[in-house]
Specification:
Strand 1 and strand 2 form a beta hairpin. A two-stranded antiparallel ribbon has the order 1-2. By secondary structure, the chain is mainly alpha-helical. It folds into two domains: 185 residues, Rhomboid-like fold (Up-down Bundle), CATH 1.20.1540; 58 residues.
């Protein structure tokens, strides 16, 4: 994930790996019951440290595999919307999911009814944007069944959803609800931003060399590098088209400019000389 302009997702990814190794998988088969969140953990013996471990640590190798795969893919949203908004999204989805899970646990009050540990809220909240914002670029058939280039992500999500049955289904559903509320812009959350000082902290934390790369001179692209202002009559690219370009490796500004240049033709972007120069 180095150099992909997603420092917040990178930090979250690394934290999940470290917490899972030291507090999850390393403890063996009984770790899932120790890491899971229960009614007692919230209302009787509440501890901040337990809450932090629960939020980042997967309880099995299978969950870790699919969880990291999805975390890595969903970095596309940080590249699309920016690190600041992604940080707000992570905090919002985590808080809303925790509130919903607390309500469910308080209704049952069963010490054996645990909520699976791991960043389920963040992952499944991201599926809302994945479904609505990421376009299908390719469709194909296999044994008479329709698939698309998004099918592997959905499959990984289903496997993670069912990895611990009820324990994992509860936080997954709460995460989807949190992602839907964010999408509906409840309390104007989509316009909220952290102070730049906090946002830049995550960038330095996850990639100390990021600043040196960002200050490096941009490559000389020749005469094409000098652009005339985009006419006001140009059609603004859709979010779906920009999302498709981001999947190809561009950041949001590059994607928008390329789409304006090629009149929003995403297919032509795959073969455009302009794109090849930007990639190089």
């Amino acid at each position: 994930m180095n150099g992909d302009k997603a420092p917040v997702t990178r930090a979250f990814f690394i934290a999940s790996v470290l917490f899972t190794v030291f507090f999850g998988i390393r403890r063996g088969g009984g770790s899932s019951s120790k890491l899971g969140l229960s009614y007692q953990d919230i209302f009787e013996k509440f501890g901040i440290w337990k809450l932090i471990i629960w939020n980042f640590s997967f309880s099995s190798t299978l969950e870790l595999f699919f969880g990291l795969y999805l975390l890595y893919y969903f970095r596309v949203f940080e590249r699309l919307f920016g690190s600041n908004k992604r940080s707000v999204f992570i905090l919002f989805s985590g808080i809303v999911s925790l509130i919903l899970e607390t309500i469910l646990l308080s209704l049952f009050k069963d010490p054996t009814n645990l909520v699976a540990s791991g960043p389920y809220a963040f992952i499944f909240a991201s599926f809302v944007s994945f479904y609505l914002d990421i376009p299908i670029l390719k469709r194909f058939h296999l044994f008479g069944v329709h698939f698309s280039d998004k099918s592997s992500i959905y499959l990984a999500g289903v496997l993670l959803l069912l990895s611990s049955w009820q324990r994992s289904i509860i936080p997954a559903i709460c995460g989807i609800i949190a992602g839907s509320l964010y999408r509906l812009n409840i309390f104007g959350i989509r316009k909220a931003k952290f102070p730049e000082l906090i946002a830049s902290f995550f960038s330095r934390l996850s990639s100390p060399s990021l600043n040196s790369h960002s200050q490096a001179p941009s490559p000389n692209l020749g005469p094409q590098a000098v652009r005339s202002p985009v006419p006001s009559s140009s059609i603004e690219p859709s979010m779906a088209a920009i999302g498709a370009m981001v999947l190809m490796g561009f950041d949001q500004n590059e994607a928008r400019q390329v789409l304006v240049d090629i009149r929003n033709d995403v297919n032509a972007a795959k073969y455009s000389k302009h794109i090849r120069m930007l990639i190089d």
